[in-house]
Design a protein that fits this description.
alpha+beta; two-stranded parallel sheet; Beta Polymerase, domain 2; 9 strands; 4 domains; Hydrophobic Seed Protein; single chain
Length: 439
């Protein structure tokens, strides 16, 4: 094991030279854990513990390599150096020895240290044995209580590593669940974001809700909410199988977010108040970005309106305008909710309360196929209208002042073009003139 870890964590792979680290210095946490598990990362995330002068060491490295420097915690002497393809955190050792420091960590699998100078592995809490068994075990209840975010982190790490949580650890988490309310919303949001990003996280979101960790922050989450999460996962799989491009979009990140995917937006919509206005207030309190909030509220509002039968081109046009880039989250939510309603109305006795057969989901997907195909076609004038004339051209041609009327005329021209009534700038101006004359 030691030779494999040494090759994986070799300083030759770091963005800085080992010569900058004093002796002793230790790599700890996720990098060591993942090296033992044989997990590789495209982006290096290194955590070092140094007996003294941790911030000074970090500053020297940042200065030498012209890298970014962030003082994370001046009291505890923790600093971060940011490279183009790696991040290195440097923390002052807590306590009189490395073992004391490791005993203050969250879980045994994260309390393994590696000395890059000597290639020695230090494992006082038998974290390696827990890694081999796939068990997430707390170091102590007091450590979880010291930082209640660690309660939620247990579920996130269990999901990421496909581990089980030790029974004593889970019992402790349940007893401390109310402490999660003390955690800053933005910190909690990052952890729940990891769980919402893919289907592996859904069972652990369910477990977190059952153990009382979600209620303090997602007060509207219910058992039905969790059924909806599973339905969204199933719908996303079928949509991606039928429309690969849509699957790619569901995995894309929302602009200006911290790794929130459009799939996560759809799943977040399952946990908040179903009323878009109340959901917006709830998400603001949880410090989500404006783009994320708009994505959730748009998906909530439009998913129930999504239909194809008897839907005019005009109605489709305004649907696409309202949905905009949130269409992928909207349609996956619509497929999931429609399937859930159908299952419940059909009185299907399933453990989750939702239909899970591929045939059922495929049928629901095909219902929305015309809208999906329009959305994925960049040349479709209903989903992706392009202007025949500009507002300035209308003002000049019609001799009208700049006003909200210009915008309304441009919208009507776009709808008329989608319906095949106009196809040239000349026809567009004549159409606008006629609308003005009849107004």
């Amino acid at each position: 094991m030691r030779s494999f870890v040494a090759s994986t964590l070799a300083p030759e792979n770091w963005p800085f030279s080992l010569a900058f680290l004093p002796q002793p210095a230790y790599l700890v946490g996720g990098a060591v854990r993942d090296a033992i598990l044989g997990r590789t990362r495209e982006y290096l995330d290194l955590d070092f513990v140094i007996p003294s002068n941790a911030v000074k060491v970090a500053r020297a490295i940042a200065h030498h390599y012209n890298a970014g420097f962030v003082l994370l915690d001046p009291q505890r002497q923790i600093a971060r150096v940011v490279f183009p393809h790696a991040t290195a955190d440097f923390a002052q050792q807590e306590g009189d020895s490395l073992e004391v420091d490791l005993h203050r960590r969250d879980f045994t699998i994260n309390a393994i240290a590696y000395n890059p100078h000597t290639q020695e592995i230090i494992d006082p809490l038998q974290g390696y044995a827990d890694l081999q068994q796939g068990i997430l075990r707390m170091v102590s209840p007091a450590n979880l209580e010291d930082d209640p975010l660690r309660l939620m982190r247990a579920y996130r790490q269990a999901a990421q590593l496909d581990f089980t949580i030790d029974s004593a650890t889970q019992t402790t988490i349940r007893s401390l669940a109310s402490q999660i309310a003390k955690v800053a919303a933005e910190r909690f949001r990052i952890e729940i974001g990891y769980l919402l990003a893919n289907s592996q996280g859904t069972p652990w979101v369910t477990a977190a809700w059952e153990d009382g960790l979600l209620t303090p922050l997602f007060k509207n989450a219910t058992r039905e909410s969790l059924n909806k999460l599973a339905a969204v996962d199933n719908a996303a799989v079928l949509l991606a199988q039928n429309w690969q491009q849509l699957g790619v979009q569901l995995q894309a990140y929302v602009k200006d977010s911290i790794k929130t995917t459009w799939l996560a937006i759809a799943k977040l919509a399952c946990l908040v108040n179903p009323d878009p206005e109340l959901a917006e207030i709830e998400l603001q309190r949880l410090t989500y970005s404006r783009a994320e909030i708009r994505g959730v509220t748009t998906a909530l509002k439009l998913s129930s309106q999504l239909k194809v039968a008897n839907m005019s081109l005009r109605e489709q046009y305004f649907l696409f305008q309202d949905a905009d880039i949130a269409f992928s989250a909207t349609v996956v939510l619509a497929v999931a909710f429609n399937n859930l309603v159908e299952a419940m109305s059909g009185d299907k006795q399933l453990n989750t309360g939702i239909a899970t057969t591929e045939e059922t989901y495929a049928t629901r997907c095909l219902v929305f196929a015309p809208l999906i195909n329009r959305y994925l076609n960049p040349d479709d004038l209903v989903a992706h209208p392009t202007p025949l004339v500009s507002g300035k051209e209308l003002i000049i041609a019609l001799d009208i002042p700049a006003s909200p009327m210009v915008g309304k005329l441009l919208t009507e021209i776009a709808v008329a073009r989608a319906e095949g009534e106009v196809s040239t700038p000349t026809e567009a101006i004549a159409f606008a003139r006629k609308l003005l004359d009849n107004s």
